[in-house]
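User: I'm writing a short report section on ligand binding and want a predicted complex to refer to. Could you take this sequence and 5-O-phosphono-beta-D-ribofuranosylamine and write out the structure as tokens? A short remark afterwards would be nice.
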Amino acid sequence: MKNIVILISGRGSNMEAIVRALEAERWPARIAAIISNRADAAGLQFAAAHAILTAVVSNQDYPSRAEFDAALQSAIDGFAPDLVVLAGFMRILTAPFVAHYAGRILNIHPSLLPNFPGLATHRQALAAGVAEHGATVHFVTDELDHGPAVLQAKIPVLPGDTEQSLAARVLVQEHLIYPRAVRMFIEGSLASQQKQLRTHAEECRPDHTKKDVA
Ligand code: GRF
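Assistant: Sure. The structure tokens for the complex follow:
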């Protein structure tokens, strides 16, 4: 049984899609906890209604990003996660935090990465006049919205589309690909990507010293 910890900041509809798929498809996994950086995140109510443990680690309680990430890491690690899932978690994470979870942390971004990283992706897509838009599930690395992609879903940009209409159609796709990607992780289909990311993080550790080869 694999332990999944999901981090949210708000609505939590991606978290909900993952929980529902796990329950319906009986994955060999459990949601060990849902952690939010905001006590008022609506998704916490869904978690509680599904008898899933919840915790709040508020970034406002910490004077620096590094101290918040350290507190968040210790809260997450208390649940012994095999996988950490960022589901609308609206915080930029520090490099040590990301390195600690190398190869076992996923995010979803509402664009066809590498296009339109960062915020306001639907506005960016409309401004660029692209014919296709979508969503990407990717491993998290310390470069924001740049880790290796796991799954992407594409939708056409239609005449008359607005930020809201695009966001709504992309969200439907997010709810399909995020559970699918998490299931792939749980079933071991992403093992080679995981291993590469772990090796890379290990080699980049500041105290890493190459072993002498005789
Ligand atoms: C989603 O569009 C996700 O791609 C982005 O933030 C939004 C979160 O929505 N990172 P929800 O909280 O999962 O409903």
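A remark for your report: The chain is about 40% helix and 20% strand. The mean pLDDT is 94.
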